[in-house]
Specification:
alpha/beta, Helicase, Ruva Protein, domain 3, Rossmann fold, globular, 2 domains, two-stranded antiparallel ribbon, six-stranded mixed sheet
Length: 337
Amino acid sequence: MAARTRPSANGTRSKASINDVGTFKATFDSVMANITAVVRGKDDIVRLALVAILCEGHVLFEDLPGTGKSMLARAIGASINAQTTRVQCTPDMLPGDITGSSIYDQRHGEFEFRPGPVFTNVLLADEINRATPKTQSALLEAMAERRVSADGVTYELPRPFLVLATQNPIEQAGTFPLPEAQLDRFLFKLSMGYLSFEAEFDVMIDNAVSVPIDRLSSVIEPVTVVEMIEFAAARTEVSQEVGGYIVHLVQATRQDPAIAVGGSPRATIALLKAARVLAATDGRSHVYPDDVREAARPVLAHRMVLEPEGVLRGETVDTALDRVLATVKPPLAPVGG
């Protein structure tokens, strides 16, 4: 149940090499403007989704149907001229339906590997919690290491590679909740939510005659996205004070009495990557504590599990995270230029 789309090659694309934060910010802003032309009223979510792809991370959307998750995935793919694949997860789906499988070639008398829908740039795994745990686990290697192993052979996935997975928070019949180990593979957990009156009115008018996403052109190429990924990782500096702040925040989630399971070391790395990209999108070459705080909730909330006693006291992950953010003070020393 996979649908592949490749956007048309028309439109104005950025050909500038990413060699400074000014070019990085201008390129990011152009992609943002292109996507928000069709995904209305959700600029903060669009920004974080783009931050995820520039961190080489993945996003889990827990949201109600019809809030624009698929539209966002298509808009991202179209804006960066990338291949986009959609998979509708169902209980009868097999791991090979995602990763691919070996097919016997009668002409040559040997098995040939046929790549599955995971071999793409942007993969939308719709209703991922409807797939069985065995099928869900087929994504683990792809998400963590960007490769697929089949019949003793390892196949590399293309760059950039982003998984946008969705799950419905209210329909639990026939679903298989994602285990903590798989939740930890997602950089962010986000919610689109419903639109404001003005944004929903604009969406209604825009879609009255045709679907705006069908007219969306690309503004950059996948190679530019890879340049931006490498620039943010190598050229955005993190002071020792801010690095210590990141580690203190994550460790505090493991020490809070209301939290049974806090952020893992993978969460520490994810928070660093997200803060670096957020700084670059603001045109800065140094990470500020505010970048860390902005990324903390989407990075940490889905990695935290509350103690049963805390749940009985009315604790929520949000209140526990608020307490952690209030307890761990950001550094006051200079953090760079």
